[in-house]
Each structure stands twice: as C-alpha cells, then as structure tokens.
Amino acid sequence: MRTKHVVVSTIAGVALAFGVTTGTAAAADGGTTGAPVALGACPDTGNEVSISGGYAEWDITCEKGRVHVRGHVKDTALDGKCARVKATNMTGGKTKKVSACGWGTDKKINLDLGKGSKGAEVYLYKS
Question: pLDDT tens, 19-44?
C-alpha cells in the first residue's frame, strides 16, 4: 500500500479545483476540521492515512453502478477519542461513517454508498 499522511488522489476536474495534480499530496479540509481527505475516482486503491491518534486504509471501488469503500480504521491513542472514517458518494451525496473507539480498536470498513460511478470523498479524523 502507498503511504500518504494527507491524501488527495483525484480525477482531473477535482485536482484542478484544489490546484494540485493527480497523485500529489495536499491539505484539504472537506468540512471535517483538520481531517485528511482522499477524493478518489473509481477505482482508487491503496489509500493509507495516519493522523495523531488514528490510522486507516481503504479502497474506493465502483461495482455494478454502486460506490464502495472497504478497509479498516484503528484508534492508536489513549486519549478518550475515537478514530473515525467518514465517506461520501461524489455522485449522490450519501454519507456513512465507521468509528474505532478505544486504544488498539481496529474496525472493518465496508460501506455501500449507493448508486454512482464517480467515486467518494473519504476522511479520517478524531473526535
């Protein structure tokens, strides 16, 4: 898997909107303060993101006209907060979340974000 501390792996139009080129790491805050975000066109595999107190890996795929995000999220700090992954379908706006709460807790991510073929915005954050 490729390691990215703050990931923006995008389709050309989204890349231009953020002023970066495809595959370039850049800071992006999609409404979740301080959260690394991956904007991934289907397929976008091998996303690996770390923040203070959290770690996640995920793949974004489009299968049979539906957007899926699969991987895992882990809480890596004794801070009383949860490591959370939030994923939004870039076509239909459907959002789902997965939380890993408690130091060492590792939760599977298996999100069906509904109909679409563009991809997803995926965030890793603590709260």
Answer: 322 232 233 334 455 577 777 888 99
